[in-house]
Design goal:
By secondary structure, the chain is of the alpha/beta class. 45% of the residues lie in helices and 17% in strands. Strands 1, 2, 3, 4, 5, 6, 7, 8, 9 and 10 form a 10-stranded parallel beta sheet that branches. The two termini are 25 Å apart.
Length: 277
């Protein structure tokens, strides 16, 4: 089995994805659709999207280890992989301590989950791990196809590549706003960063490792922080940020397209497809 994510994909919360949207992303030429927001363990949405598209690869980003037993994730993986060979990547992750009352021994829990996936026959190359810090990045390299960093910068991508090595998948998410006015762009980009991510310790700790101060992180993030985490501007400006990730060692960049509340995201997807694909 060999899952290919391609260079450019789209990250979108599973609840905000319809089959029709997936078909349009496939038509536009995006290589991969990453389903965020802890998809349910039966992964019927993944199967439905793959049934209705021709080329699109689908990844989970991520199945939450606390919410979905490994045996259930494995059963869904095998069902989908048998029906759609080489078009599904099982992304898993530990989630956040603030969201799970039972959160304990996170590293050991990930290891146990990977052991169970091994026992259930899920191949290393068919799964990837959400990872930010050095220890979990190394685990992703040792036990999975590679790492799925989220809410990061090209500087983090460079560090992650050094840890996972040259041959492992490094698929990074980056938020984008197709808007050239700085105030409007930041008004769109800041809320999805500030809540929940600037209230979650794993992301805060990672931003500190990248050199951001507590003052920059406080009060929903200052402009330097938001501009680092959200690429905004015209399609050329966004393409330049994507290129920074590739230059730093990313194999795949998954764009999370942010729009004004209630706005149709399709014009932004089309603009980005025209420039990036």
């Amino acid at each position: 089995m060999s899952v290919t994510l391609g260079r450019i994909g789209i990250w979108r919360a599973a609840a905000a994805v319809t089959d029709e949207l997936a078909v349009e992303l496939d038509r536009l030429g995006f290589a991969t659709l990453s389903l965020g927001g802890s998809p349910t363990g039966d992964l019927r949405q993944v199967e439905s999207i793959l049934d209705k598209t021709e080329r699109l690869t689908v990844a989970t980003s991520i199945v939450n280890i606390w919410q979905v037993p490994a045996a259930e994730a494995a059963a869904s993986y095998h069902r989908i992989a048998a029906r759609h060979p080489d078009r599904f990547l099982l992304g898993i992750g530990i989630g956040h301590p603030e969201a799970t009352s039972d959160y304990r021994r996170p590293y050991a829990t990930i290891v146990d989950y990977l052991d169970e996936l091994d026992a259930e026959g899920v191949p290393v190359e068919g799964r990837a791990l959400a990872a930010l810090g050095p220890k979990v990045l190394q685990l992703a390299a040792d036990r999975t196809a590679g790492a799925l960093p989220y809410l990061t910068t090209p500087e983090h991508t460079k560090q992650a590549r050094e840890i996972v090595g040259p041959d492992k998948l490094l698929a990074v998410e980056h938020k984008v706003v197709v808007e050239t006015d700085p105030q409007r762009a930041r008004a769109i980009g800041r809320p999805p960063v500030a809540f929940p991510y600037l209230k979650l310790s794993n992301y805060i700790n990672n931003l500190r490792r990248l050199g951001f101060t507590d003052e920059e992180i406080a009060d929903d993030g200052n402009d330097r922080l938001i501009d680092a985490l959200v690429a905004w501007g015209d399609a050329d400006a966004i393409a330049a940020r994507v290129t920074e990730h590739f230059d730093a060692g990313a194999d795949h960049v998954s764009l999370q397209v942010l729009t004004a509340e209630g706005a149709d995201p399709l014009p932004a997807f089309r603009t980005l497809a025209d420039r990036l694909l």
